[in-house]
Recover the amino acids of this structure.
């Protein structure tokens, strides 16, 4: 097994009395794409949000167990959340660029985190836009509103926006569900390029996307991690009958 | 182009297919060389080496299954992967025919061959040329080339009939030659079947590119 990027140990998560994640033990390898699949309400998005503690914003959430990133339990007291979210970037379901220019969207995080000098911004913007294959399209429109872009471009921009912070991990919560099929395939191609530098964890309700685009797949059901293995194995010879029934469309 | 990752997987599979084709061509060539010299040790090695070709076939098949399971191929991509599976089956069977020739070498007693080999190596060369050309036509999706290769099979059939008639004459003249003549007929039959299998590949190429099913 490759080097581990994220490890969970007996992770439990409760929304008040409801237990959304049950004793999850998981090891996500570095610089691979890991997909989390399962029917609605299975806990996959909850698990994803655990990795940069987005669930903290929800009332009544309680977590037990450990989540280790860079040899550190991110739920340990005194954890620096700003530093964590710098390291673990997030891309959401609907493209959500700030109502600012393309350029300002990309430097926004740098300014918040105070990570670079202003004189470095232009080079950083170019690099980020090149990484998501937007530079050629947008280099002459850097100061136009990001909201004028197509949905696919907006989603690429949202990915580009995360990169200047030099995250190690990119979390993607259904990043293609607002996109048409061709734009979806383009984003999947982009993920293949990005995984050379970043660990990617993607939640998708589209199991075909998990099959196409990921290296490892985790199947969750009713808060439990039923199976976690290489995507090739999950989609040809899953070990659990429940996994097979789900991926072959027999329930869920 | 979208789906770069998938396209790369397909191109990789093509390379593996060509590699398997080269292994099969080498097996055919070695089996005919072993026959020329009645080299039983080499023939035994060819029989053992056939397992490597079988393994390559299963490796490629597994990769095809993986592409079906993970990439949802449709239309041309679907026909291409279906064709991969058919091609490797045909190539694997060709290698079995080469192994069949090697087995005949092993069975051959120490007496020299009935006659110096002339048309059998010619058949083998022709069959190997057909395999090479068919794999190139597969990679380049060249339907015209595939049709031309199918026509080449007639030349192999003609050689087969010529060899058969010649050996029949030997047997009628001297019944003591029958065993060795039958061995050579078996060898040429194996080569003839190899060329037939190349025509299967060519029909598959036409199917892959046009969707048209030919052959009967």
């Amino acid at each position: 097994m490759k080097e581990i990027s994220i490890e969970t140990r007996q992770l439990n998560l409760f929304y008040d009395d409801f237990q959304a994640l049950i004793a999850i033990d998981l090891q996500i390898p570095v610089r691979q794409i890991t997909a989390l699949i399962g029917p609605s309400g299975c806990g996959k998005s909850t698990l994803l949000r655990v990795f940069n503690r987005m669930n903290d914003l929800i009332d009544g959430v309680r977590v037990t167990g450990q989540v280790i990133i860079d040899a550190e339990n991110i739920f340990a007291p005194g954890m620096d959340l700003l530093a964590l979210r710098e390291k673990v970037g997030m891309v959401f379901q609907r493209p959500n660029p700030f109502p600012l220019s393309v350029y300002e969207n990309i430097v926004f995080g740098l300014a918040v985190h105070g990570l670079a000098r202003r004189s470095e911004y232009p080079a950083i913007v170019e690099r980020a836009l090149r990484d998501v294959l937007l530079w050629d399209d947008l280099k002459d429109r850097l100061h136009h509103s990001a909201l004028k872009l197509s949905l696919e471009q907006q989603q690429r921009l949202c990915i580009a926006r995360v990169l200047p912070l030099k995250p190690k991990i990119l979390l993607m919560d259904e990043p293609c569900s607002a996109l048409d099929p061709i734009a979806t395939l383009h984003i999947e191609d982009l993920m293949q390029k990005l995984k050379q530098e970043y660990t990617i964890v993607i939640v998708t309700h589209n199991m075909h996307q998990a099959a196409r685009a990921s290296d490892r797949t985790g199947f969750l059901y009713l808060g439990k991690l039923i199976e976690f293995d290489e995507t090739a194995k999950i989609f040809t010879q899953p070990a659990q009958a429940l996994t097979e029934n789900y991926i072959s469309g027999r329930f869920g | 182009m979208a789906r770069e990752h998938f396209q790369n997987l397909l191109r990789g599979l093509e390379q593996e297919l060509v590699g398997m084709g080269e292994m099969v061509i080498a097996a055919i060539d070695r089996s005919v060389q072993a026959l020329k010299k009645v080299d039983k040790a080499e023939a035994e090695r060819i029989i053992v080496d056939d397992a490597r070709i079988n393994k390559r076939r299963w490796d490629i098949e597994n990769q095809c299954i993986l592409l079906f399971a993970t990439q949802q191929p449709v239309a041309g991509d679907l026909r291409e992967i279906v064709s991969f599976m058919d091609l490797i089956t045909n190539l694997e069977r060709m290698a079995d025919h080469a192994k069949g020739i090697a087995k005949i070498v092993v069975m051959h007693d120490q007496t020299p061959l009935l006659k110096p080999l002339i048309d059998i190596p010619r058949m083998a060369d022709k069959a190997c040329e057909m395999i090479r050309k068919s794999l190139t036509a597969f990679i380049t999706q060249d339907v015209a080339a595939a049709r031309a290769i199918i026509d080449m099979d007639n030349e192999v059939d003609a050689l087969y009939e010529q060899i058969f008639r010649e050996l029949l004459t030997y047997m009628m003249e001297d019944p003591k030659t029958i065993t060795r003549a039958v061995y050579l007929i078996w060898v040429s039959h194996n080569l003839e079947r190899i060329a037939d299998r190349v025509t299967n590949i060519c029909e598959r190429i036409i199917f892959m590119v046009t969707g048209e099913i030919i052959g009967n």
Remarks:
- Residues 4-37 of chain B form the longest helix (34 residues).
